[in-house]
Amino acid sequence: MSTKDRGIIVLAILAMMAAFYFTPHLAAYRMRAAAQANDSVTLASVIDFPSLRESVKAGITAKIQTEMANHNTQQATAWANIGAGPLSDMVNPMVDALVTPQAIGSFMKGETPGKDQSGSSEEPGYETNYAYEDVNQFVVHVRRKTAKDGAIGLVFLRSGLVSWKLSRLRLSL
């Protein structure tokens, strides 16, 4: 094998590694572009809605339970005695209504779902950080530039060899 052939093989391997590394970045970009274009079909193709809904439900329920436990009142004790059933009956329909392609698209554009945005032409300032947590998990942290805390983590999980889907949200409620 000649030196030229080895060089071509090394370059091909490096190109494949770079492409493999940037596949979750591409999924995040596709999601953002689809949100900007109001393309709910493309949004739905890069989001695992059942997993995302369960993630949001679990996060909200855990936050509510923590808040109730921190308030040592008679009302909090009464809710704790009733159990998680009524809580999930309250949270589940809200999350199901909010975790849709249209609502996710609104969130991605910095809008409030269902709110008229016609008078708002100003783009909100956001910081975005991208990070692998492991080979199959990639997180996009989004935070308003003016906020000290409150980052939202968009967790993408590998779906096949080079495909990624938004599967979880890490909410800082």
Overall description:
The protein has 173 residues and is α+β, with helices and mostly antiparallel strands. The protein has one domain. Helix content is 54%, strand content 18%. The chain contains six helices and four strands; from the N terminus they run ααααααββββ. It has helices at 3-36, 40-45, 49-70, 74-82, 85-98, 101-108, and strands at residues 126-134, 137-144, 152-158, 164-170. It has a four-stranded antiparallel beta sheet with strand order 1-2-3-4. A hairpin with a 5-residue loop joins strand 3 and strand 4 (164-170). Helix 3 (49-70) packs across helix 5 (85-98).
Can you give keywords for this protein?
single chain; 173 residues; alpha+beta; four-stranded antiparallel beta sheet; 6 helices; 4 strands
| Rg, Å, rounded | 21 Å
> Sheet bearing the most strands, described?
4 strands, antiparallel
Please mark out the parts with pLDDT under 50 across 5 or more consecutive residues, or reply none: none
Number of helices: 6
Find the structural class using helix and strand composition: alpha+beta
Can you tell me the overall shape? elongated
Question: Strand-residue fraction?
Answer: 15-25%
Helix % is 40-55%
Strand order of the largest sheet: 1-2-3-4
Cα end-to-end separation: 59 Å
In round numbers, the mean pLDDT is 80
**String of helices and strands:** HHHHHHEEEE
Number of structurally distinct domains: 1
Total number of β-strand segments? 4
